[in-house]
Amino acid sequence: MRTRTATWKVTWRWAWVLVLVVGLGLFELVRRVVLATENPNLVPSLILLGAVVGPATFVVFVWGRRLSFGVDPVLVGLVAVVGGVVGVVTAGALEYDVLKDLGPFQMAGVGVIEETAKLIAPAVVLLVVRDRRAATGLLLGVASGAGFAALETMGYALVAFLKSQGDISAVDQTLLIRGVLSPATHMAWTGLTAAALWAAVRHRGRSRWMGRFAATFVVAVALHAAWDGIGTTLSYVVLAALSLGLLALAVHRIGHRRSPYGRRVRAAR
After folding, report:
1. Any idea of the CA torsion for 15, 16, 20, 23, to the nearest 10 degrees?
2. What is the pTM assigned to this prediction?
3. pLDDT tens-digit map of 114-130
4. pLDDT in tens, 68-109
5. Is residue 258 classed as helix, strand or coil in its secondary structure?
6. What pLDDT digit, counting tens, does each position of 154-183 carry?
7. Half-sphere exposure of 9 (CA within 13 A, CB side)
8. Roughly how many angstroms between the first and final C-alpha of the chain, as a whole number?
9. How distant, in Å, are the alpha carbons of 10, 92, 96, 119 from that of 113?
10. What's 157's DSSP letter?
11. Beta carbons of 44 and 109 less than 8 angstroms apart
12. Strands (DSSP E) along the chain, which ranges?
């Protein structure tokens, strides 16, 4: 039994490699057929695969870490889909007025709206499940951010295709850039805020933990606003490194929490 359990853990730990390889293989297959046949009917499939591979790989990567999650893969996938759709629709509806009315504070307003919208699905799950571990919140936050990022990337890729009058290279560039950066943006920020929200609820809304959640949310909004507002290559590199660093720190702290007796306990899958 122990051997089977250990094998299962190892399998999940490296499952992200399989997702990445298979996903990229399917994307390249569709891409080659599109280039060879110039069939526009296949472009939606190309955009869908290109937008989903990166976020899906990162969700599976987080799932394979040595953390204790209280949800199953079906719920994680559901949060990714529902969270992405609800987040994109909510943000799209509200941002129209924000971009028009907030003037110089547009980027901050967009950051608040999108970071709140991506938390809707995880927050609903929080109301109906008993699990209150921060690891679960982090995973569901990453999943919701993944769904949001994938749908947003599909939109940008479609616009690039139309503006370039059918140039596949423009679509490739958009998918590559956003696919690589999505773990360091929407997924990292929502993962951090959802983990902090789960921890606050687990500690029954005590002021200390609610303060941590509020501070984490403000940091996520600030990173989001800086990402949208500065827009230089150097700023993207710095902000990506900072965002992933904060997420890695959160994973480390959750996975190496201390027990009530002061002993360090590694969370087991």
Report:
1. 60
2. 0.88
3. 999 999 999 999 988 88
4. 888 888 999 999 999 999 999 998 888 777 666 666 677 888
5. strand
6. 999 999 999 999 899 999 999 998 888 889
7. 14
8. 14
9. 38, 9, 11, 10
10. H
11. no
12. none
185's tokens: 């943006």
Instruction: Assess contact for 168 and 34: CB atoms under 8 A.
Output: yes
Q: Which amino acid is at 95?
A: E
- The alpha carbon of 240 is separated from its chain's Cα centroid by a whole number of angstroms, namely 13
DSSP 264: B
Domain ranges of the chain: 70-256
Single-letter residue type at 86:
V
Write out the two tokens for 203: 């500690």
Contact between 247 and 192 under an 8 Å Cβ cutoff? The reply is yes
Distances (CA, A) of 185 to 166, 175, 259: 28, 15, 32
Rounded (10°) angle between helices 134-163 and 233-255: 160
In this structure, what are the phi and psi dihedrals at residue 71, rounded to the nearest 5 degrees? -130, 160
CB-based contact 197:209 (threshold 8 Å) = no
